[in-house]
Design goal:
The protein has helices at residues 8-27, 32-36, 38-53, 59-68, 74-98, 105-125, 132-154, 170-190, 194-204, 210-235, 241-267, 270-292, 296-318. It is an all-alpha fold. The chain has one domain (3-318).
Length: 332
């Protein structure tokens, strides 16, 4: 692979982060934690690749495995998600910006603003009242419903695809702020969520190309996850030693695999990418069901959320926006 495919600033970031990591590990004799966190590191190989290649954060993979399979308490798993994504998704974002991959900046700016408020309020007023198992069940069920609707939308031979939000209006600012606010609340629970939640709205309602929506959502999640890390580390000061050890163990992994995911997805066609998304949503749901082992009430909740999601996303996709400005259409 040609070295020119990797921007200079990304290489600088990588070298600086790894140099600081090696220095800290040697100075504090911390290399023993790598063996203690081997399962966490293996999980993050897949989690960070998904974070860089899709609108899902690494926590969408790591959170259920950590909390329901490895026995890691939810607060530790959530704070780890903020901590590790601050490294991996920053690497992916630097790669995206340096390679000048197409982005929708209106989407990024207003969703991020709404999301920061949602993140803070959700941390203080939502997290204490939501049981993690139910929250995760709702999470994977809703995204499965979105995947089904996206599949049905892409089967339309004349589906119109835009490269950004066309004819941006004041009402669109309100839409993005509101959806960002809700997404920030979701992220306060899991350490991720605003990216996939607002991605759904951008693709279904605004008909934006998934290959533009995805890197845009990665930029959003990068800002949100850094804010979440700062909130818990410096303001609330509730990050456990276990979280920091897990974080240190995984830094050398995510700094490579998150941008690798971004690189590979940028090279494939939109059709191949959407197929990749369908697989992620399906595997994520099946994996969660295997780990959670839901009883009848939880299974009925999941089914109800899927039905609600199908109706909701189909309704959003049926809304007619009628942009005024002439646009270029991409139907392939």
């Amino acid at each position: 692979m040609n070295y020119k495919n990797y921007p200079l600033i990304y290489w600088t970031y990588l070298v600086v982060v790894l140099a600081v990591w090696f220095w800290f590990m040697i100075e504090n004799d911390k290399f023993y934690i790598l063996q203690d966190n081997l399962a966490v590191m293996i999980t993050m190989v897949f989690g960070s690749f998904i974070a860089g290649s899709s609108p899902e954060g690494s926590a969408s993979v790591a959170y259920p495995i950590f909390t329901l399979y490895l026995g890691i308490i939810p607060d530790v798993a959530r704070n780890f998600a903020f901590a590790i994504q601050s490294i991996g998704m920053t690497a992916a974002s630097i790669y995206i910006l340096n390679k000048k991959i197409p982005l929708d900046w209106n989407y990024i700016i207003y969703v991020t603003l709404g999301g920061l408020f949602g993140l803070v309020l959700g941390t203080y007023y939502l997290v204490p009242h939501v049981l993690p198992v139910y929250a995760k069940l709702i999470f994977v069920s809703l995204w499965l419903a979105f995947g089904i609707v996206l599949f049905l939308e892409n089967r339309k031979s004349q589906r119109v695809i835009f490269e950004k939000i066309i004819d941006f209006r004041n009402m669109d600012i309100i839409n993005l702020l509101v959806f960002g606010f809700i997404g920030g609340g979701i992220s306060s629970l899991f350490g991720t969520g605003i990216n996939i939640f607002t991605f759904c709205f951008l693709v279904i309602y605004y008909k934006v190309n998934e290959k533009v929506a995805t890197p845009s959502s990665i930029i959003i999640m990068t800002v949100e996850t850094i804010a979440g890390f700062v909130l818990h580390a410096l303001i609330m000061q509730d990050i456990a030693v276990q979280t920091y050890d897990m974080w240190l163990s995984c830094i050398p992994i995510v700094i490579f695999f998150a941008p690798l995911g971004t690189y590979l997805v940028h090279k494939i066609s939109r059709h191949s990418f959407t197929t990749f998304l369908y697989v992620i949503f399906f595997v994520q749901y099946i994996g969660a069901m295997i780990v959670i082992k839901p009883d009848i009430p939880k299974s009925m909740l999941s089914l109800g959320i899927i039905i609600f999601g199908l109706i909701f996303f189909r309704y959003i996709s049926s809304l007619t926006r009628n942009p005024i400005l002439p646009v270029e259409k991409n139907n392939h």
